[in-house]
Design brief:
The structure is a homodimer. Chain A is α/β, with parallel strands linked by helices and about 325 residues long. The first copy, chain A, is built from ten helices and eleven strands. An eleven-stranded mixed beta sheet of chain A has the order 3-2-1-4-11-10-5-6-9-7-8, sandwiched between helices. At the A-B interface, helix 8 and helix 9 of A face helix 8 and helix 9 of B.
């Protein structure tokens, strides 16, 4: 199984690229095509021991950064690691997925222009994968790439989101919910009212409207939304988690008697951080593209490379695009 | 200063009504007109000691509940505590504010129909008041009453929200921000792009776009948004706070050595709860009405009665409607 890694465009390209060695050591059955400057890639991997026969390097001379205008960069930087990788994914059916930690805009635009959307899909959705209270993972789409969606867009996010959860987690009928301002059928805005009707007739396991406070309850596998409130949802959780754990740390430090052994408090914060760590669930998936493209965090490190490659493997083996693409 | 209390329509009317006695004891210079069934009100206050000369009871025979359709209830239940109170507020200029903990829909519809909007205001906004990391309070409007807003609606929320913060907290030029998906000027959807242009020209202290994760940072006094993402924002914070503090409690209990005195942990959770408690900031305000109407939580208790009355007093004394109404 061949997977492409775009080595450039992220904050820590060296760390990100170094993760390829870890992935080869930890994930069976995959070979990696690393795309970027050959010397840089060789240098990033120089201290690592791994099966070199499972790595191919494709040398490119340009890179796309967050300072580039996405559409222009995709058009003009033809020898960038991202554009070259996307073209290889498009042209070579033996290559199954592309993972990039580069500019979200460039990955999105490049994927739409070079790979193309699945039949009937107008706009690919960007998913966020968040860890739930009960250890499950919830997919939220769209999480900020698509503003001013229509109801058909939301139906597409639901279909591809369901297929993602089914392929990666083996859940036969993922529970799909619609983000709204109340759980009652009639609650919401013009968009959610239209989308509600479509989802009800979709044949998916649509469980109705849900409220933001229950997003991580584990009751839902897929939460469908326009990208604007979707983005508000994930950033609110992020902000609140930081605020609440920060306040709690302050209070505990202030209130603890002087000679208290606080190692159990430290351990607890470590566990909290691990439970809330979204990197364990992999990168964001572009839902509705003809091929598998995963967008990892801009500040990704080696652990994200490994997790995204594991995620891609599960999607491929689980048949993510088989009924849809 | 006369303030109306709608005694009915909430989950704990007895507790809510009993709070009137506490308010009279704690808040100087206000007299209360309690509207509802006379016997019930007398009974709720029977064990309390307070200056009876500062309480007037207006007897009504009906009540509006959450099971009523708001518009129909306002039209038909003419002797309900809410409708009677709204009419008194409209007709008697010596009465300065109305506080209700009843059905949000009925309070909104009743206020629009009976009190009316300020000149030029199409839809009154419902504000949420949330405590920030640094002890400040941020007003978020709309927080869920108005779906599918236009840019003019958002400008109204900004104007009345600013006036609220100025009147209650004495901040001369409240910092107004627009909820979006990034801080850059061009980020957002069609609505925020239009609203951005209006806010920039508004003469308010508009500080630009903000992201949901920074809502409680204390950098902003007023956050303006359509009611759909506004509702997602406040419910996400609520959900995340519950999730994170719940997880932290579990970890601490599990990790603490057997003989640890956990009273400092308990104290810390108490402080966290107090810091996150929105009841301290008062009820939601209907922004853009001709008179002051405050909507307290449906599950309000006596402390909410007191805080809402304090809040109303500050709004009146601070001249909330003086430049606007």
């Amino acid at each position: 199984m061949k997977i492409l890694i775009d080595c450039f465009g992220c904050d820590n390209p060296k760390e990100w690229t170094r993760g390829i060695a870890d992935a080869i050591n930890q994930v069976d059955g995959v070979s990696i095509i690393a795309v970027g400057d050959r010397d840089f890639i060789e240098d990033s991997l120089s201290g690592e021991t791994f099966d070199r026969s499972r790595l191919e390097i494709v040398h490119t001379t340009e890179m796309i950064t967050n300072d580039d205008f996405p559409a222009e960069a995709i058009r003009k930087k033809r020898d960038s690691s991202l554009v070259r990788a996307l073209k290889m994914l498009r042209d070579d059916d033996s290559i199954k997925a592309l993972i990039s930690a580069g500019s979200t805009g460039a990955v999105l635009v490049g994927s739409i222009v070079i790979i193309g959307n699945c039949e009937g899909v107008e706009r690919p959705g960007l998913s966020a994968l968040m860890p739930c209270d009960n250890g499950k993972t919830v997919l939220i789409a769209d999480c900020g790439a698509n503003m001013d969606c229509d109801a058909d867009n939301l139906l597409d996010f639901a279909r591809y989101g369901s297929s993602y959860i089914k392929s990666v987690y083996g859940i036969e009928k993922p529970a799909v919910a619609l983000l709204s301002v109340g759980v009652e059928d009639k609650k919401g805005n013009n968009l959610t009212k239209e989308a509600f009707a479509l989802l009800k007739e979709s044949g998916l396991n649509f469980v109705g409207n849900m409220e933001a406070r229950d997003a991580l309850s584990g009751k839902y596998d897929v939460i469908v939304t326009d990208g604007f409130p979707g983005n508000v949802l994930i950033k609110s959780f992020e902000g609140a988690a930081k605020t609440v754990s920060g306040m709690m740390a302050q209070y505990l430090m202030k209130n603890a008697p002087k000679d208290t052994d606080l190692s159990f408090v430290k351990k607890s914060f470590g566990q909290l951080g691990a439970a809330l760590d979204t990197s364990s669930t992999g990168g964001a998936v572009l839902l509705g593209l003809k091929k598998i493209v995963i967008k990892s965090h801009g500040n990704a490190t080696a652990i994200n490379t490994v997790n995204s490659i594991k995620q891609a493997k599960k999607m491929i083996e689980g048949g993510y695009l088989d009924d849809l693409g």
